[in-house]
Amino acid sequence: MKSFSLILAFSTLLILKGNAQEVKWYSIEEAVELNKQEPRKFVIDVYTDWCGWCKVMEKNTFNNEIIAKYLNEKYYPVKLNAEQKADIDFLGTSYKYIAQGNRGYHELAAAFLGGQMSYPSVVFLDEKIQGLHIEKGYIKAKQFDMIIKFIGEDLYKTTKWDTWSASYNSPVTSE
Predict the structure, then answer these.
(1) 17-21, 31-35, 38-42, 44-48 — which is least confidently predicted?
(2) Which of 20, 59, 172, 174 could form a disulfide with 145 if both were Cys (CB 3.0 to 4.6 A apart)?
(3) How far is it between the farthest Cα atoms of the chain?
(4) Which CATH number fits domain 21-167: 3.40.50.300, 3.40.30.10, 3.90.550.10, 3.40.50.720?
(5) pLDDT, position 10
């Protein structure tokens, strides 16, 4: 009986893990191509490999099932390493890595962040690939859910953030 209970518990765990939603991340080039066929907003996670808060945000915010599902349905989620060395062709311009001492930065990350390099940062673009909003720093899952819904549902066009956020009840239970 004990072995049956263990098998049942293990099987349930595998099924639950198999159903877990994860963000489908794209490169900026892939997202631009997909946007030509099906226009969507972009959410761009600007990070670095050494950034501890970037890793915490990946684990606690982006890996939240509710957030992952919504991002996959409503946005083109893009990962952009702000220190990647490979060139990126974006909207007819080639962006490069700029070396500076031990660390450098990627021109595209600097362009998205207005030259104010801060990690993590999340950049929102509309369907026409125009800038909408930048969030700098670690964002807890519940707060991020509010932001992605406010922008994703175009509420920013008709409603003030303070009014909407005071009435919105996020389904995200974890911080």
Answers:
(1) 17-21
(2) 172
(3) 65
(4) 3.40.30.10
(5) 43
Cβ neighbours of 71 (radius 10 Å)? 24
d(CA 97, CA 40): 28
Chain centroid, CA 103 distance in Å: 24
Residue 21 is predicted with a pLDDT of 82
Buried b (16+ CB within 10 A) or exposed e, 127-145: eebeeeebeeebbbbbbbb
Q: Which pTM value belongs to this model?
A: 0.86
Any alpha helices (H) in the chain, and if so which ranges? Answer: 2-19, 28-37, 52-57, 65-74, 107-112, 141-152, 161-167
Note the pLDDT tens digit of each residue in 50-79.
Answer: 999 999 999 999 999 999 999 999 999 999
Count the neighbouring beta carbons within 10 Å of the beta carbon of residue 51.
Answer: 19
Note whether 54 and 119 are within 8 A (CB). Answer: yes
Q: Which of 138, 132, 161, 139 is nearest to 40 (CA)?
A: 132
Q: 73 with 155: CB under 8 angstroms?
A: no
R_g (Cα) of the chain, nearest Å: 18
Q: Please, are residues 137 and 57 in contact by the beta-carbon 8 Å criterion?
A: no
